[in-house]
Amino acid sequence: MIDFGFDKLALIGAVALIVIGPEKLPRVARTVGHFIGKAQRYVADVKAEVNRSIELEELHKMKSQFETAARDVSQSVQQEVQQAASAVESAWKPEGSSDYAGLETTPPESVNASAWTPAYQPPRKRWRMKRGAVPRWYKQREGVRMHVQSGAARVARFRPPRSGA
């Protein structure tokens, strides 16, 4: 990067004062400062964008690593389950028995899963009604208002009776 020391900046300022003049120098200095600020913000935005893209690439790599690890674990678990199922099946099957020779065994994949799922029950009629956690008897004992009443109805309710004249 360009290295400006105090002596170089003083020399540039003196040349600018002579060339531009004392009347226009503050406006030119303000404009140059404005452009330098814009350039710094642009460089900072570019750096941030590059950092974000690098982090995004790292996240994609990490995601693929996790997916492969999860896939490997799933396959190993599936293999272990299949080995255990075959061991149980071989231990359960009677050897040399003629009583069970004609029976067919059904593998777990062909079992109908809908036989064990409960039937759909539609929700009760009042399923949208909000149910409070505080019981009604407690609210009545403590004097909590149970019904909403408008302001006009409340005033009419507590207005003293008119005397008929």
Automatic annotation (TrEMBL):
Positions of region (Disordered): 88-117
Membrane topology per record: Single-pass membrane protein
InterPro entries: TatA/B/E, TatB
Gene Ontology terms: biological process: protein transport by the Tat complex
GO cellular component, one term: TAT protein transport complex
Top-level taxon of the source organism: Bacteria
Main location: membrane
GO MF, any single term: protein transmembrane transporter activity
Compartments in which it is found: Cell membrane; Membrane
Keywords from the named record: Cell inner membrane, Cell membrane, Membrane, Protein transport, Translocation, Transmembrane, Transmembrane helix, Transport
Subunit structure: The Tat system comprises two distinct complexes: a TatABC complex, containing multiple copies of TatA, TatB and TatC subunits, and a separate TatA complex, containing only TatA subunits. Substrates initially bind to the TatABC complex, which probably triggers association of the separate TatA complex to form the active translocon.
Function: Part of the twin-arginine translocation (Tat) system that transports large folded proteins containing a characteristic twin-arginine motif in their signal peptide across membranes. Together with TatC, TatB is part of a receptor directly interacting with Tat signal peptides. TatB may form an oligomeric binding site that transiently accommodates folded Tat precursor proteins before their translocation.
Homology family: Belongs to the TatB family.
Name this protein carries in UniProt: Sec-independent protein translocase protein TatB
Originating species: Ideonella dechloratans
